[in-house]
Design goal:
This protein is globular. The longest helix is centred in the middle third of the chain and has 13 residues. Helix content is 20%, strand content 40%. The chain has 155 residues and is an alpha+beta fold. Strands 1, 2, 3, 4, 5, 6 and 7 form a 7-stranded mixed sheet that branches.
Amino acid sequence: MENQTDFTRSVTAVVFKEGKVLLGRHTYGNGKGLLIVPGGYIMQGEDPRTAVKREYLEETGVVIEPKEVIAIRFREKDWYVAFSADYLSGEARSDEDENDLVVWMDIEEALSREDVPGLTKELIKVNRERAAGFVELDYDPLKEIGSLFAIPYEK
């Protein structure tokens, strides 16, 4: 089965490394010229964790491991999930398509810049300030397709 893009579901991740956050300068649409956290649409049949790993590698050359869900945005026709993610490897570089610059930027600088939009700033702050995010629970009694995320609790 050939994968196709699902324009109603998208993902991103906030990745910190040594006091810096990974941002890309977008080249099109409403985000043109703005420094945003990388991400993109999910392909048909792809789960959100796989999608965000793919998007980061394609757009930045960086390998990440998504962890907790830190935010979810719902709109009338779509949804957007943001993960906290660990940097694993790779040298940050532009894909010369969706972004023309990829940079590790000091977190405080990113939060003060006018070319970093409000959504990106909020995601950075949530990732920096959170006590806990939603984590994937070990729940699949019927081997259902999908994942269940919830706020962690003591068992």
